[in-house]
TrEMBL record:
Top-level taxon of the source organism: Bacteria
Name of the protein in its database record: HTH cro/C1-type domain-containing protein
Organism of origin: Dictyobacter vulcani
PANTHER family: HTH-TYPE TRANSCRIPTIONAL REGULATOR, METHYLPHOSPHONATE SYNTHASE
GO molecular function: DNA binding; DNA-binding transcription factor activity
Coiled coil: none
Keywords: DNA-binding
Length: 135
């Protein structure tokens, strides 16, 4: 398969994952983004290659900025190239489609008070003290 088709499929996968994570239907996402349900479905299936303007509309409808959407796509591309689980500071980052890594890590970091964690060692200690599970 060529690179363009791979990118189309990756974009579609990320849009679908984020839509499902927010419990939106294709129709609801289309309405929020000002796009037809059919077009959103084609994007999710990797059949259409969305323009930058369409990606901006989808990102906004998903409550993301463009940088976040592009970051999710980059993570998906990396995951395709290297599908093994990645170890990060004592816990396994999920690589399942229904739980994007950025979201899980962001959720953990948002639990912290300002200044609570000043080093990687402190962050590890924090995780151990909370007995966090990422399931």
């Amino acid at each position: 398969m060529d690179t363009m088709a791979d990118l189309q499929e990756t974009i579609g996968r990320v849009v679908r994952q984020e839509r499902q994570y927010r419990n939106l239907t294709i129709k609801e996402l289309g309405e929020k983004a000002g796009l037809s349900e059919i077009y959103v479905g084609e994007i999710e299936r990797g059949q259409k290659y969305p323009s930058a303007k369409v990606l901006e509309s989808l990102a906004q409808a998903l409550g993301l900025d463009m940088a976040e959407l592009l970051e999710l796509m980059a993570e998906e591309i990396r995951r395709d190239r290297e599908p093994e689980y990645t170890r990060v500071i004592g816990f396994t980052v999920p690589t399942t489609p229904d739980q994007p890594r950025r979201t899980v890590i962001k959720r953990i970091v948002n639990m912290l008070d300002d200044g609570e964690i000043e080093s990687v060692a402190n962050f590890s200690a924090f995780l151990l003290s909370k007995h966090l599970t990422l399931s």
